[in-house]
Design a protein that fits this description.
- The protein has a single domain, classed as CBS-domain, CATH 3.10.580.10.
- Helix content is 35%, strand content 25%.
- The chain contains five helices and six strands, in the order αβαββαβαββα.
- The strands form two sheets. It has a three-stranded mixed β-sheet with strand order 1-2-3.
- The model has no long low-confidence stretch (mean pLDDT 94).
Amino acid sequence: MKQSRSVLESKRYGVYTCHADATLLDASRQMVDEDVSCLVVITTDGYLAGIVTRFDLMRACLHHDDWDSLPVSAVMTRDVVTVSPETTLYEVAQLLDSKGIHRVVAVREENGRLRPISVVSASDLVYHMVHDL
């Protein structure tokens, strides 16, 4: 992957989202329908509130008989690792490696709040590793 390529240059914008009060069943169905591994959880006005992953859903199913009716807020990660659109893919790779995570959320700051614009995953990085040879 080119060390200087930024998130802005390499990733299409758009992010699959849900609200914190959505049920885990609804979030699961959306992930299956959209074939994505996570949903960015947003506030009613579209700012970042958290992230929920397939692993979060699986863990909830294992530990809660009523998992399907639980709200996303019960299992989402609130402390989301974020980057700016100008962050390079190389820097994203270093961040994923150092934190032991699979994805980051690219955000724009608006009045001290974060608006999610994209998700960059390890899969995206591998794609660019192959295509940048």
